[in-house]
Amino acid sequence: MTELFGEFRASQNWIGAAGSTLKTASYIPPRPEDMVEAMSDLEKYIHAEDPLDVLIQAALIHYQFETIHPFLDGNGRVGRLLITLFLMERGVLQAPALYISFYLKKNRIEYYDRMSEVRSKDNYEQWVKFFLRAVQSSAEDASETIRKLASLHDQNMAVIDGMGRAAKTAKALFTYLEQNPIIDIRKTAEALRLSFSTVSGAVKRLEEKGILIQTNNASRNRVFAYQEYLDILRKDT
Questions:
Q1: Range(s) within the chain of domains with CATH label 1.10.10.10
Q2: What phi and psi, each to the nearest 5 degrees, are found at residue 3?
Q3: For position 210, what pLDDT does the model report?
Q4: What pLDDT band is residue 1 in, cutting at 50, 70 and 90?
Q5: Which of 74, 98, 101, 189 could lock 199 by a disulfide, CB 3.0 to 4.6 Å apart?
Q6: What topology does CATH give the domain 162-234?
Q7: CA angle 145, 147, 152 (to 5 degrees)
């Protein structure tokens, strides 16, 4: 049976160093038939009422998902995404602005050790404390990123305000850039419902002010980036 990406696994998997086998694995998740039942139980818990703090619930959900390991690949990414989606569903986050992946990757050895401690000794407290530190650190990083983006926005809006009659189109382009920081002129003109020449002129003005930079060497189909914005977003990723 061929297993497709995104489907629950139908075969046994394991976790360990490169080249490890079932015999040498550091952890062996549940058998496929047990995994299906475990995922059903996890889904029920996610939707159930629980008096525990929502962040503690998120810690337990993430641990349980990674322990079940329901896919042959991508369990880490899906498990980290599950944290954000759960917190949004519970109203703790209004937008997916919490990038917890960086903290977990930066502290991956402790991350794996903490989960192993639960599996071997049933010690949940040390795992929850680690998870809460990860959330705190990620929230502080997110706040700092938002502050930097707001400062960059105000700085560049001040520059655009000084463009006189050209400011209106430049502002429309700038607003678009904050949602689409890598652009080409044709698609941007279509999205803004402006002529190619109008957008081309606005791009040129933002390029002259250092807000946009061309990222390829083409004379046609040129691509531009709001590089300072991207640099802030890409920090620690």
A1: 162-234
A2: -100, 125
A3: 97
A4: very low
A5: 189
A6: Arc Repressor Mutant, subunit A (1.10.10)
A7: 95
